[in-house]
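Holo model, alpha-D-glucopyranose. Inputs:
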Amino acid sequence: MQKDANWWRHAVIYQIYPRSFADGNGDGMGDLKGVLERLESLKQLGVDAIWFSPFYKSPQKDAGYDVADYTDIDPLFGTLADFDAVLEKAHSLGIRVIIDLVPNHSSDQHPLFQAALKAGKGSPEREMYHFRDGKDANTPPNNWPSVFGGNAWTQIEDGQWYLHIFDSSQPDFNWDNPKVTEFFHGVLRFWFDRGVDGFRVDVAHSLVKAKGLPDLKVDPEEVGFDPSAQDYKDHPYWGQEGVHEVIRGFRSVANEYEDRALCAEAWVLPLSNMAKWVRPDEYHQSFNFGYLSTSWKAADLKKVIDDSLLEFGAVGAPSTWVLSNHDVIRHVTRMAYDEVPKQGDGIGPDYPQPDEARGQRVGRAATAFMLALPGSSYLYQGEELGLPEHTTLEAKFREDPTFFRTNGERVGRDGCRVPIPWEADKPAFGFNSTGKSWLPQPENYRRYARSAQEGIAGSTLELYRQLLKVRKQFNLGMGKLTWVEDLCDESTLAFDNSGVRVIANFAGTVALPAGELLATTQHDLTIEGVLEHDQVAWIRL
Ligand code: GLC
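Output:
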């Protein structure tokens, strides 16, 4: 890998969800062998780095975010040797690799938790997690809800309760205990020593809990991941001040190595608060979920971009940008609606079905707009194909704990996690050679298969390639954004970055300025033409 201490400032990072990227052994579950075989396609796409969602040993109660061994690969996905092979090949292709760290909780099958259960009340083993006596024999220690629905406490045989902000199979670590810090520093070093380029840190905003674990004052029903529903000043586990000490510890470990980066998954608002997480001795970057949640409206986008550049800039950090991941409804589907369900609720067969054409059009425009912004961008596997959410998945196939913990009321996140299509005419659309798939693929995925788009002018795949190529050529990631105020109103936005003018049209038509058309979502557009609604053009100034 070429040395570049600043690679994370401008990188386009592609998220691989190992269960659904490519399946090398044909058992219906994606794996590292599959990734190895398909890595070249990411090189062709033009990404700078990949981020792996968890592939660690895990009972898979939350799709691998329930880790039973932080330093080994689950046999479902392969072996450490398979990982080394992927890492080596990625590096040889000039692609960096970041992996997921899940420090808020382990699996209940982790030896540390098993030891805590055995050791009993008041033991140092229990101090690794949050064990408490209830308010009375049958009432949990406080009113905290699980993000996935239901209560955040589970009672064990001896009467004590343990805390799990997510599923009951995911007990929360006690980050007030220095042994927890020590343990995770060891995990970081294990993977850094192996050569990974960084970590994405899972639910980074919940590690530290308020002293005494006080009751939540806001309505627990309203509290999920939705940051706007939360009052951070008063919240006992989202965004506690004490978390910054933990972050500094992570950063000091990363600083023992060269060119490594840490990215926080932290659903924290307002942005001025979020920016504190990326001060020079804390995380390198953080997901910008404020951007992800902003709908395709000129004024709202302009504001969130200005705020992001201002707030992150104030602490010397770049902003990141993201539209899709494995926890949210894929953006081409979100953008097919005026109103979308809350994060984590998902879309099932009973929900009004999306306007696919509208979603494709707006979703592609949103991507073309995002990829010209200075900073680093995250892509989620399949979005380069314009892949929509699976919105008619039958209940019997669902795996997301959210579905079970809410008795199906919130269908959950499986719809964005379906194995992606590679070849239109192969079994499982080329995900493997056997046709098995842990979640069934909808028939419309055939149309979105890579093979159906490769070399086809105007396809979403070719659009992404062109955007990434031009982005690199003009070094947009390291550039500076200047709004072209004359061209900004409620239906148009335009900005310049490094000699490229980006115009986004939200309604009506817009005439293009003189220049060379570098990329556009509007197939067959020429510089003499007009930009239609929900289309974006990049023009060389
Ligand atoms: C993060 C992950 C999500 C997981 C949760 C609990 O938000 O992205 O998939 O369910 O943490 O680990």
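The chain has 14 helices and 20 strands. The chain has a mean pLDDT of 96.
Archived with the compound record.
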